[in-house]
Write a structure and sequence with these properties.
Elements: H1 52-69, H2 87-105, E1 106-109, E2 113-119, E3 122-127, E4 130-133, E5 140-146, E6 151-155, E7 165-167, E8 173-184, H3 187-193, H4 197-213, H5 218-222, H6 226-243, E9 248-259, H7 265-312, H8 314-329, H9 349-358
Antiparallel strand pairs: 1-4, 2-3, 2-5, 6-8, 7-8, 8-9
Helix pairs in contact: 4-6, 7-8
Length: about 375
Amino acid sequence: MPWQNNGEGGGDSPSGAEGEEPAAKKPENRPVNPWGEGPPRRPMGKPGQSRGGDFDDLIRRSQERLKTQFGGGSGGSGGGFDVGDGRWLVWAGGAIVAAWVVFSSFYSVDAQSAAVVQRFGAYVSTTGPGVHFKLPWPIDAVELRKVEQINIIDISSSEGANENLMLTGDQNIINLAYTVRWKIRNPESFLYELSDPEKTVREVAESAMRAEISRASLNDALGPQRAQIADRVRERMQELLDSYRSGVDVRGVDIKQADPPAAIDGAFKDVSAAQQDAQQYLNRARTYAQALVAKAQGDAAGFDAVYAQYRLAPEVTRKRMYLETMEKVLAKVEKTVVDAPGVAPYLPLPEVRRRAAIAPAEPAPAPAQR
């Protein structure tokens, strides 16, 4: 039988007939393989030693599978590339690097912004709106800042302990609420010179406002001089921020509220009402004085006109002035003076008229009875 070893069982092989050469003697202790001799077996290693041949076979089979999947043939005529030589890693790495360069080398800036380009953290340039090129990240980095946007800081007051109290020049206390409008003028200075730009602008605004209020009186701060105080605060803020090289442009300061503290609000309203009454009385007195002055000026002008006529015709003017004066004097006197020849110089005409008016009112005397 083909599975029996030579020399065992005592049987002859089928090819051992007469006239035929005996088959080659097989090595002892090896089974006969009816399908032919296979590749020789690798010797088994010692216990604890790895079998390198099996691992090499596994690698070789894996490479052949990859060649088949990527279109490569065993003879290299499949049009692909050899996975085993590592070129696919080079191509993949090149594609990744190209994508990284493309996507990190271009940046866009909108119409309201400006971009500050930094190279390894140091300032390089400032670019305006549009699409621009830079070195890939992390070599170059871009910081965008809204340079056309108006920022508003509201420094308001509220009731209670959070009142924004300030001391005026006449030693009074006022509660103020105001807003500050500002924008970025120099992006690189704004980025590098200030650690907290909004906080810096707020503190500068408070300092400038307190300095200006300390020079103004309470009445000026409450109304008449509020616009002028706000303008001076804006100028002082701009000077301070320019000295800091902040890159900030202060656009304006608006005082929204100027009131006395809540604790003395009632008394302050009483004082304000009294001041308004006093001002009203002063206005009335000024109006009356102006009327008297105007009347006196009119009388003086009339006298000048009469004097001019008197110089032209003294006698006529003198008689006219005499008659007008006598008419004014005698208008309320109960006597009539007639200056004519043959007439008594004095007639009690008013008395006669008075008696004539009273006589009809008296009852007629009753007739005597017989």
